[in-house]
Design a protein that fits this description.
This protein is α/β, with parallel strands linked by helices and 318 residues long. The protein is built from seven helices and 13 strands. Helix 2 packs across helix 3. The longest helix has 15 residues. The structure holds S-adenosylmethionine.
């Protein structure tokens, strides 16, 4: 339940919402614990089963506020989701890899209860934070690029830190209950995949950014595969200390095929290495993009896949 800070409910208008709040964004070197005042409080747990139109809520549900029916519905290992059109007014359209809020909300609803804390260490234009607000969860995002961070901060009341998320060990954060993020998929945005038509080429033509930034700390600009993997793992090594025991994280990644058909199993490599640094792998969930147009990449002589799925790697702190 909201503590009544006057925040509007985003749920009907989705990304239309523009927040008037200006005190929800801060530079990393200025972060203090008192900055993160909870906007949403936990709701009282019922002592008996509660029957609703969406199914029955169990009083011993330790993970979320879903009914049994909603819980089971979520657990299918793949899903289709066609994102809503992006909002031109809020500036989010400018970001080259914005995620749909409805996607983040699915996971936030499953892996947290109301009033808990969610962290997105690569928050871009704050889709995770907008979704968290819709679900009445408190959230913190970290974003290197001030441009994306400022667009994000206008879309939510939740909190944004401008800075390099690899330094999150230096931050005095509330204990985090869940983290979900889509990190840069290595330097993929620097590589247009074949063909004369591609989303990236269309964006450049329309005058939009095709990469996140030119910043040397931008992990989307790391050229070497293992260096990128190690930096990402370093971050998750530090994140573990910020999370509640038994808390889940979801990391969204794709395997990558580069020029000359070189294949880099980024999602798989990352998952295996996460286990080596002490996280428990639980499952993967697949976002299938059946609405995406098929590109003509290798025809008529070479197999090149249209990669229209993303891995949502579900991982847990032991
Ligand atoms: C795939 S995007 C995330 C998009 C976001 N989920 C959204 O819906 O807008 C990855 C983001 O990571 C940011 N980024 C890259 N390197 C970073 C770093 N070292 N620290 C924090 N953010 C970084 C990029 O600027 C980019 O906005």
């Amino acid at each position: 339940m909201s503590n009544g800070t006057g925040g509007k409910n985003n749920s009907d208008k989705g990304t239309q919402y523009i927040s008037n709040k200006t005190d929800n964004i801060v530079n990393m070197n200025e972060v203090t614990r008192s900055f993160f005042k909870p906007i949403f409080m936990p709701i009282e747990e019922p002592s008996e089963k509660v029957v609703t139109e969406h199914g029955t809520y169990h009083p011993r549900n330790a993970l979320n506020n879903l009914t049994g029916k909603e819980w089971i519905h979520f657990t299918r290992s793949w899903f289709n989701l066609k994102p809503k059109k992006r909002n031109k007014k809020t500036g989010e359209i400018l970001h080259p890899a914005k995620y749909p809020e409805e996607l983040m909300a699915r996971f936030i609803r499953f892996f947290t209860k109301k009033g808990m804390w969610v962290l997105d260490p690569f928050c871009g234009t704050a889709s995770t934070l907008v979704a968290a607000e819709e679900c009445e969860r408190n959230a913190i995002g970290i974003e290197l690029s001030e441009k994306w961070a400022r667009i994000g901060a206008k879309r939510t009341q939740n909190y944004i830190i401008i800075g390099d998320s690899r330094n999150l060990d230096s931050l005095d954060l509330p204990q985090i209950d869940f983290s979900i993020t889509s990190p840069p998929y290595w330097d993929m945005l620097h590589h247009s995949r074949g063909g004369s038509k591609s989303t990236q080429k269309d964006r450049i033509k329309a005058g939009f950014d095709a990469t996140f930034s030119k910043h040397e700390l931008d992990m989307g600009n790391i050229k070497e595969y293992n260096a990128f993997l190690n930096e990402l793992l370093g971050l998750y090594n530090k994140l573990m200390a910020k999370m509640r025991q038994g808390a889940y994280i979801v990391v969204i990644l794709q395997n990558i095929q580069k020029e000359k058909r070189q294949f880099y199993p980024l999602a798989w490599d990352f998952a295996l290495k996460m286990r080596e640094i002490g996280w428990d792998l639980r499952q993967e969930m697949l976002w299938c993009q059946s609405d995406k147009k098929l590109g003509i990449w290798g025809y008529p002589n070479t197999y090149i896949s249209n990669v229209h799925h993303h891995y949502f790697l579900v991982i847990q702190k032991p």
